[in-house]
Design goal:
Length: about 450
């Protein structure tokens, strides 16, 4: 028998000793969300003045990230994110973070074929008796990064929930170079973003499209939370989970007896996810739960996998749409807000599912900081970053209705989109459609 405890002792280091392996010009990965290596990040930041051009990748991380905060010059550390949390969005606004465009189902392939990782630093659960450390709610991204890294450092976080997985949910001590221990603050109890009245209105319009036994992918924000809240109160039953991000919306469905995963075509009986962000109650529910399976995003977000699930329903949000049906979901103008994530993955996958549907939702208007109201249906994007191309967009919803753009011509799209725009902006949008020659004279009522 291997003496894993002896191996553990031999690889144990202080954070300060571990980060000595980082050299000028290195690429360092912090992986994702709760995988952020808090103690190692703090120790690496202390080496600022002796290091130059060290580049760090992460995503969906709460603050502070010490290496980003300690070096305004970016001569020593440069931070990058491939999906911005609210905190990382603030870093982007301050010029302290650079966004990496990434389609999530290709996450593993990016690392395997195109990216170099000198050092990976990742928080894990405590080692089990077989010598494995659990990647926990970071399973969606961690293993492919660790496999590519020249040096693997794990930071044992005593608060990490243990997550059962399909594959790649753990790393063995034999694949680890250094181990860090230390006391960690409990995770912040992230509360679900409360749905607005407009979110509830849109959710009401979506409910009739969902049938018993549907499998759900819910994105981030008030709209998907509103759908989860209303589904929990509905008459629907035997719903299932297959989602890149597990949130408290699924916990609400489970507590209401709606989430059973009984009729899934694949992974029957198990709710599948890649990453999880939410309340401590959510993490407690996920902890060592046989009804839950975490997988890498290369599986969770693969359109081919998604398309195998009957009645797959994908519900995501966006910032704006133009009259051609192009969707901007990750930025406002050039300002990075979140990331490409899995919206396109689930659009394609759910569209290929028998009985599947993919919804992109938004309020019809937004109000800027000066109190001016703007339409989220735009005449035509000009310089905006497109997340989902018009050829892939399926259902779109506002509080004024739900439309289906699949197979629709340019004038049909314009007509449908104007019908769900706020009434105050419809005449303007008709005029803009006419100028672009995508409006039939007979449409004008």
């Amino acid at each position: 028998m291997f003496d894993f405890q002896q191996m553990y002792r031999e690889k144990l280091r202080t954070p300060e000793a571990a980060v000595e392996c980082v050299k000028d010009g290195d690429w360092v990965d912090y992986t994702s969300s709760l995988g952020k290596p808090v103690l190692l990040d703090r120790a690496l930041a202390k080496r600022r003045d002796e290091l130059h051009d060290v580049k760090i990748r992460g995503n969906l991380m709460a603050g502070p990230i010490e290496v980003a905060e300690c070096d305004d010059s970016q001569e020593h550390f440069v931070y990058h994110s491939w999906h911005c949390s609210q905190y990382e969005r603030k870093l982007c606004d301050e010029g302290k973070c650079y966004y990496i465009p990434m389609v999530f189902h290709n996450n593993a392939a990016y690392y395997e074929y195109f990216l170099h990782v000198n050092v990976v630093m990742v928080s894990v659960g405590p080692m089990d008796k077989h010598g494995y450390f659990n990647f926990s709610v970071n399973t969606g991204v961690a293993a492919p990064i660790a496999r590519k890294a020249d040096i693997v450092i794990v930071e044992v976080n005593e608060h990490m929930p243990k997550i059962r997985g399909g594959y790649d949910e753990c790393i063995h001590i034999s694949d680890v170079d250094m181990i860090i221990e230390g006391e960690h603050e409990p995770f912040a109890d992230v509360k679900t973003q409360a749905p607005r009245e407009v979110d509830r209105k849109i959710a009401e319009l979506l409910i009739p499209y969902i049938v018993d036994g549907s499998t759900l992918q819910l994105g981030i924000g008030g709209m998907p939370n509103a759908v989860g809240e209303m589904l929990a109160q509905s008459d629907l039953k035997d719903l299932a989970m297959h989602t890149e991000l597990c949130s408290d919306a699924y916990l609400a469905l489970y507590k209401a007896g709606k989430l059973t995963n009984k009729y899934k075509n694949i992974d029957r009986g198990k709710g599948v996810f890649g990453c999880a962000i939410g309340s401590n109650e959510l993490y407690e529910w996920l902890d060592d739960n046989p009804g839950i399976a975490a997988y890498p995003l290369e599986y969770v977000n693969r359109p081919y996998v998604i398309s195998q699930i009957d009645n797959m329903v994908s519900i995501n949000s966006c910032v704006a749409v133009d009259l051609y049906g192009q969707v901007a979901a990750e930025s406002s103008g050039s300002r990075q807000i979140s990331g490409t994530g899995g919206q396109l993955d689930f659009l394609i996958g759910a569209s290929g599912s028998r009985g599947g549907k993919a919804f992109i939702c938004m309020s019809s208007t937004h109000t800027d900081r000066n109190g001016v109201k703007h339409s989220r249906v735009k005449p035509q994007f000009n310089g905006d970053i497109i997340t989902s191309p018009r050829s892939q967009v399926y259902f779109l919803a506002t509080e004024y209705g739900v439309i289906n753009l699949e197979g629709r011509s340019t004038w049909e799209r314009a007509e449908a989109l104007i019908s769900i725009a706020h009434p105050d902006f419809r005449d303007m949008l008709v005029k803009e459609a006419q100028e672009r020659k995508i409006w039939r004279r007979s449409n004008k009522r």
